[in-house]
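debug: dumping io for the single-chain case to check the tokenizer round-trip. Nothing else runs in this session.
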Amino acid sequence: MKKIMMFSVAITMLMACSKDDDNNSGGGSRADVILVADLAADQGTTFFSLRNNAIIPAEDSAGLDSDIAFNATNIYLNGGVSGGGEAAGQVRSGIFDEVLAAPASGYLQDNEEAPALSATRGNAWYIYNDGNSMPPFAVLMIPGRVVHLKTADGGFAKLELLSYYKGNPDTGSPDFANLQTRPASRYFTFRYALADSEGKY
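debug: decoded output
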């Protein structure tokens, strides 16, 4: 019986691997996708390394370790006026899983006017509902938007912002609409992938 069970498990694993291979053969992105949940941006600026999938201490953020930083609804990149790296970005319409290559041009760095990833620079990634819209007083991600990034060391990454609220809640639910039961804000959930040396995903 034990041998039969082990054989059954092996067959199941083999079938699962074959299914994954089939899914990858359809021309979709093959890069490893990393999910970051509830990155806190409620106590000052949080610096993050896409390459290391790690929060970078503020005292170490002046170098090339950090690629991106979050402070409430402000997103900063390690380049331009915000750092000594090569980081730059742009927001384009698209489906994250269908993006197979980094754009060759169109990247902006943070400047004195505004961060690169802002509506002011033509790179809006969220909308804000005022008290006259439902859910009221909410920061909502714009669907179908992909953030294209240059990392601090000149590589490429694609990123999709999923939520601004702790626990990635359903923003269409009654609990979210109710300000008394809405989860805390300034907690980013996002997923991203790093491109290879040719800018492919």
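debug: round-trip ok. Residues 1-26 have pLDDT under 50 and may be disordered.
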